[in-house]
């Protein structure tokens, strides 16, 4: 009986990790394809998507969100990704679906941006907001992952839990 229960838990854990890897890999692939498509179709042109939102190829040679030096962002990204891989194996965290989805989005976005920084010394951003910041799809995945981690906490605090 215990062996069956253990095997089921192990198989479920393996399925969860595989699903997360697939989602994270999907983020990397979609981010890369969006950048290739933007370079091919836009070149140096800009397209106004909405008030204050422009689609344009922008190369970011600085750190995350244009802040800090590139070397610091690379080191910080490696540390954060290592911590996220640890969280995947943590039994309490891995039992929460929204947490695991958030971790997959964070890993996918982090790997996409880190890979581009290591290969090319920059990231390619596509969405410019009010000329204040520029993001790529990996950044959007990171922001969504952070929102998924923060929102359940703020909901619980709002209820007085």
Provide structural commentary.
The termini are far apart. A hairpin with a 2-residue loop joins strand 1 and strand 2 (53-60). The radius of gyration is 18 Å and the shape is elongated. A four-stranded antiparallel beta sheet has the order 1-2-3-4. The protein has helices spanning 2-41, 70-89, 91-94, 97-120, 137-159, and strands at 46-50, 53-60, 123-129, 133-135. The model has no long low-confidence stretch (mean pLDDT 83). By secondary structure, the chain is α+β, with helices and mostly antiparallel strands. The protein has one domain (24-159). The protein has five helices and four strands, in the order αββαααββα.
Helix tally equals 5
Global outline = elongated
Could you give the order of strands across the largest sheet?
1-2-3-4
Distance between the termini: 37 Å
Structural class from helices and strands?
Answer: alpha+beta
The poorly predicted ranges are none
Largest sheet: 4 strands, antiparallel
Taken as a percent bin, the fraction of beta residues is: 5-15%
Rounded to an integer in angstroms, the radius of gyration calculated over CA atoms is 18 Å
The count of domains is 1
SSE topology sketch:
Layout: H1 2-41, E1 46-50, E2 53-60, H2 70-89, H3 91-94, H4 97-120, E3 123-129, E4 133-135, H5 137-159
Antiparallel strand pairs: 1-2, 2-3, 3-4
Helix pairs in contact: 1-4, 2-4, 4-5
At a glance:
The protein is of the alpha+beta class and 161 residues long.
């Amino acid at each position: 009986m215990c062996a069956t229960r253990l095997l089921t838990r192990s198989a479920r854990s393996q399925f969860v990790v595989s699903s997360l890897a697939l989602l994270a890999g999907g983020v990397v692939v979609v981010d890369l394809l969006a950048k290739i498509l933007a370079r091919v179709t836009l070149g140096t042109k800009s397209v106004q998507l909405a008030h204050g939102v422009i689609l344009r190829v922008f190369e970011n040679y600085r750190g995350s969100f244009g802040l800090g030096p590139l070397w610091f962002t690379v080191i910080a990204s490696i540390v954060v990704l290592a911590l996220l891989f640890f969280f995947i194996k943590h039994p309490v965290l891995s039992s929460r679906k929204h947490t695991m989805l958030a971790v997959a989005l964070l890993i996918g976005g982090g790997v996409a941006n880190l890979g581009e920084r290591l290969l090319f010394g920059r990231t390619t951003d596509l969405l410019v907001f009010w000329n204040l910041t520029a993001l790529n799809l990996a950044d959007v995945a990171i922001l969504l992952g952070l929102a998924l981690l923060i929102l359940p906490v703020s909901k619980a605090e709002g209820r007085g839990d």
